[in-house]
């Protein structure tokens, strides 16, 4: 008999794939054979990452990647709405076929456990139907799960109607007295698209929540210390196993170039700017940020996804190149890259400030590296909750205020960069949080213990 087999099904987007790949690698180290589902959509985007992950020297065997069709055309792949539609319409059938394929001709159950992103309730239901053990994985803050689990309470208290519509917009609520306040307009479903879309997302969340609630395990890329109140609300089901970070250094040319470039600067002097995998700035905001960095007169490493559809659609031809030419011609030092080895960049001693959109992975990576934040949430609703954690709960960052036109001005950026990089108390707290995060995953740490228990359960 071979190793016990785990099928890992991520939502096909970088922010979801990165932590689940880390979890897969850890399972491989525990003697499991892991099949990681990738779609055509994401496989193109994160091929390097998957290759890097499967080639890690310390993995005793491989994470096997199974690419399933997503039914999307090249044009469709540029539209996030089409992606979520294909995840519901095409992916379930393809994953079902994959399980049949793994089970082979006599259809014996080969898979010991299915681990699926908590947003893929259909995958958890399929595992239940087929009698496969299952676990849900949350790549976002536990506070976001707490939000979903609190839907019945929000309805009871008249904060939302049964279809999820807000009874009052822009109202501050707390899911528990110890949790950071949330603006009702930033509730996940309430912050997306038009009323129809909001109702659909709400229904989907309710459906997923029902599937997730039934799983034996609900694993989170977080720690008790970062989110004690959220874990209290979710007890006993949700368990933190984070932070799930890569311990390997990649050897790609981009990584080497970025790290070599950082080597030339003194400790904590460089600003790192990155907005995750899908956030884009419009030309006005891009220019304000560029000018703010120039005014700050500090070295910077900025991720600008030039080939990203939103950037290329909104920016006039040559616009970003013009900026780069000015950077090179001026006497301040900065580099712009399409995709940085973020975890390694954040771990580099020269980095002293992380200008971030506060995606949960970026938040956890920044915290684990002891780098203070300048928070710029602007895409999905969870980023505002993460900003509250960073600024109000943990005290390791500052938010950026928008002016009357909704723009974060160059002067605001310059001022806040100065404050973040000069605030010794904040820097001290960031280092304490880093220690705490590392402690959780060490032998005997809370996350390490939870992971060990999970592994024991699959093998049992
Ligand atoms: O140049 C880059 C830019 C990003 N990353 C990595 O990409 C991931 C980005 O993840 P995250 O910070 O969570 O941002 P998003 O990609 O925007 O993630 C989506 O998914 C997250 C988890 O559910 C949510 O918290 C976010 O709001 C949502 O936008 C991180 O691991 C980064 O290290 C790189 O390695 N290099």
Automatic annotation (TrEMBL):
SUPFAM superfamilies in UniProt = UDP-Glycosyltransferase/glycogen phosphorylase
Q: Does the keyword Glycoprotein apply?
A: no
Q: Does the keyword Transferase apply?
A: yes
Keyword set, alphabetical order: Transferase
**GO terms, molecular function:** quercetin 3-O-glucosyltransferase activity; quercetin 7-O-glucosyltransferase activity
- What Gene3D superfamilies does this protein's entry cite? Glycogen Phosphorylase B
Name the family.
Belongs to the UDP-glycosyltransferase family.
Q: What is this protein called?
A: Glycosyltransferase
Ranked from the top, the taxonomy reads: Eukaryota, Viridiplantae, Streptophyta, Embryophyta, Tracheophyta
